[in-house]
Amino acid sequence: MNDCHEMVQDSKGRLILLTNETKNNILIYDTAGKLLDFWGHDFPGGHGLTLVNENGTEFLFITDTVKHQVYKTTMDGKILMTINAPLETGVYKKAEEFVPTETIVDTNGDIFIADGYGAQYITHYDKDGKLLNYFGGRGDGDDHFDNAHGIVIDRRQKKPSLLITDRTRNCFKRFSLDGKLQEIIKLPGACVCRPVIKDQHLYAAVLRSIDMSHPASGFTTILDKHNKVVSNIGGTEPVYQAGVLQPMNQAEKIFIHPHDVCVDKDDNLYVTQWASGKVYPYKFTRV
């Protein structure tokens, strides 16, 4: 195992962990931490891991920041589809400019890819990998990004929307599914990774606190359905003054570089860490 990047739980209750170690990119555990299976030798830049259920059959979407590609695989590792750099957009001149960090898949099979380490565009595809739309990109405007690290479809409101990380700017940005900016959720002091939604709460690993120049300073944050921070594991207590969240910071040295949160069926939390001395995920049991 090298860097632990992201983790999901499948319908069997198994925990699927993605690493960037090509001896075994995927490690599969039970909730007690027993290794059940492993596979994968083809993802040197394994970064984003998304679980999709299509009519009762589960698949994985894996982003690779080294190979500049996104893959759809079976649960045992067979590659079914590869999405390459979207050169047809005209905003990418070469494949190396596309460095995808995350995907999310809609109920109709549409795929959204966040290019968090590249040109910062969000690309939208149909279920067969045909490009439908793109938006965002690097820039200073509110509808642009600087480290669009993660993406999720938020169904807690009547109309589904995209929540997208803008990590360097310490916020999540809400967009319509067709790419129109709707809201900015400011999280001062929190360089957040991907948003993870379970029931009415949003969870996120905070890679670093204050800003990206402060290594080994992360924590894990939890927001309610009103976008209010209700808890920071390893971080300072969230404080609001006149309705405005005050800067947050690491308070306890629990994490080094937390990179993702997985919430299991019993609401236990698993936090994966990057560049943290090859530590395995930490489990936090619901009290």
Describe it for me?
Strands 17, 18, 19, 20 and 21 form a five-stranded antiparallel β-sheet that branches. This protein has a four-stranded antiparallel β-sheet with strand order 1-2-3-4, with no helix packed on it. A four-stranded antiparallel β-sheet has the order 5-6-7-8, with no helix packed on it. The chain is built from no helices and 26 strands. The protein has a domain of 99 residues.
Short description:
This protein has 287 residues and is mainly β. The protein has strands at residues 4-9, 15-19, 26-29, 35-39, 46-54, 57-64, 69-73, 79-83, 102-105, 111-114, 121-125, 131-136, 151-154, 161-166, 171-175, 181-186, 190-192, 196-198, 201-209, 219-223, 229-233, 240-241, 244-245, 258-263, 269-273, 282-284.
Mean pLDDT: 97
Give the class from helix and strand content and strand pairing: mainly beta
Tally of DSSP helical segments: 0
H-E order:
EEEEEEEEEEEEEEEEEEEEEEEEEE
Q: Separation of termini?
A: 30 Å
* Spans where pLDDT lies below 50 across 5 or more residues: none
Pfam families: DUF5128
Protein name: 6-bladed beta-propeller
Keywords: Glycoprotein, Signal
